[in-house]
Design goal:
By secondary structure, this protein is an alpha+beta fold. The protein is built from 2 helices and 5 strands; from the N terminus they run H-E-E-E-E-H-E. A 5-stranded antiparallel beta sheet has the order 3-4-1-2-5. Strand 1 and strand 2 form a beta hairpin. It is globular and about 35 Å long. The N and C termini lie far apart (about 40 Å).
Length: about 90
């Protein structure tokens, strides 16, 4: 197994990156907010068969979207993709 990389090192390295970040996430509703529960990100090459989609349910949301790596770094700043919350 390779050396462990600290999450802040990764987030810091993509903070100014304008490449595409392909994101799949699961968010859970807590009151009036959505809280990020799980997140998968690939920066750079588009995954084969990539399709942007959004499945919204009353208590959870599954989202596949393309954002900039810099925007993804903002979401992940602090404690790496959690616990982040966004207003509805």
């Amino acid at each position: 197994m390779g050396a462990r990389v600290q999450p802040d090192e990764v987030v810091g390295s993509i903070g100014g990156d304008d490449r595409d970040a392909y994101v799949r996430l699961l968010a859970l509703r807590q009151g009036q907010r959505w809280v990020l529960r799980d997140c998968w990100v690939l920066v750079g090459a588009e995954p084969p068969g990539w399709v942007e989609t959004e499945w919204m349910y009353e208590q959870c949301a599954f989202v596949a979207s393309c954002v900039t790596a810099a925007d993804m770094a903002l979401l992940c700043s602090g404690s790496v993709c959690g616990p982040a919350s966004v207003p509805p």
